[in-house]
Amino acid sequence: MADPQNIKLGTCKISYGGVDLGLTAGGVEVTVGTNTHETKVDQYGDTVVNEFITGRSCTVSAPLVETTIDNLIATMPGAVLVTDGVDPNKKRVDVASGVGVSLRGQAKELILHPIALPDSDVSEDFIIPLAGVAGALNFAYKLDQERVFNTEFKAYPDQSKNGLLFQIGDKTATA
User: What is the pTM of this model?
Assistant: First the structure.
């Protein structure tokens, strides 16, 4: 039977490697894609007789608005935090070209948690165990607009968990 309680609205909290990335503007979007290969045989012409999954992809786009040094370090692979030796309040982020940096090697757990639920209710969490981020920025310094840095996370299969790409719900549930 149809149940209107199953209709969900609302934004989410986003944490990466256990760090809360803060507020967003414009909505966090999850995209899951599945690639397939259709098989055809001469006897049935162009009719597809079967289809096989050849791969899946999962990305999360998050328009982050808390442009803190900590968030920049967390979402920019290879970024280095420099803290002044005399005045520890003076800090900067140094970003090199990053050529050859493995994004999978720096991947961390990404969790999207609906804000409508208490933190203790993880029944609707969206989890990517190994999420990498390339570290792109596009700031707009405008009078009437927030500085947003759109961050895109990409899921990599977790080999220690039979190629697990993502989970929805309570990650501690066991079979």
Answer: 0.90
